[in-house]
Amino acid sequence: MRKLPALILSAGLLLSLAACSTGANAADGCSDITAPGQASESVSVTGDVGGTQTVSFPSPLVADSAELSTVVSNDDPDAAVAGFGGIVNTSYSIYDGQTGAAVGSPSTGLIAVSDTLPQGLQDALACASAGERVALVLPNEDAATIVQGAPGSVVMVFDVERTYPHSASGTPQPAQSGFPAVVRDETGRPGITVTSTEAPDAAESALLIKGDGDTVAEGDALLVQVTSVSYAEPRRASVNTWEEGSPQLWLASDDTTKTTGSKQPAGIGQFLIGQPVGSQVLVVLPTDDGSSATAWVVDVLGVVPPAAG
Q1: Cα angle 83, 240, 282; round to 5
Q2: pTM of the prediction?
Q3: Residue 21: pLDDT above 70?
């Protein structure tokens, strides 16, 4: 069997099987998720969470529907979960339910909780908090979407290291005059209205939502949702990670040489330094010749540890 590609974050590009869900970014829906069953309860895992996993279960292990069990729990009732549409930094292993053999090597990375993932997999990722370990058994009809050619059920064991919401969260700030107008729908997704076609002479920024997380420092790798509109074409979003399906990794730095060749626009990183995680920042960058400008709305979802990139 061969694992289906495009599941994890690797080499700085966030990949997912499909566009992220536009559902709520908290634990909405986690009170009614995939339940444990005889198959998932028979999965035994030893080793520290985040370390080497030793997984065993009786084989062949067959499930008629998805089953999800918590192997190691986080007992903090206020522990954050990614929610449906969020992002999870996790290490995981996949096993053939027929033979008990591992499918490929253990993997670590960021996974977007997509609404086209099997429901059991969505539940496993969206509703687990940092420090938890969960065991998921998928029936063959779902297993085949994860492991090409799977002859039966598959077992997946996830160690959740960190979770990220799908949008900014915090305290809305008063609007500042002279900037494009930004509105958000019920999911937190922003829209930009350019109220003037006159481009500014210099880059400028405004804080739209003040997060309550750690302060972004120089050199931090940031997971961000981004949408942008050009002053020259104000009716069309030029970049929109909400539509494209996954957030991006940006660098908080005023050294533009460090982001050359990336999707990050030159000069924007300096406006993210000093902002609390969870913030939404509006940055207006004029073109080099000053003839136009682009308005960028950046949701700072979190700081990504180097090992996840």
Answers
A1: 90
A2: 0.84
A3: no
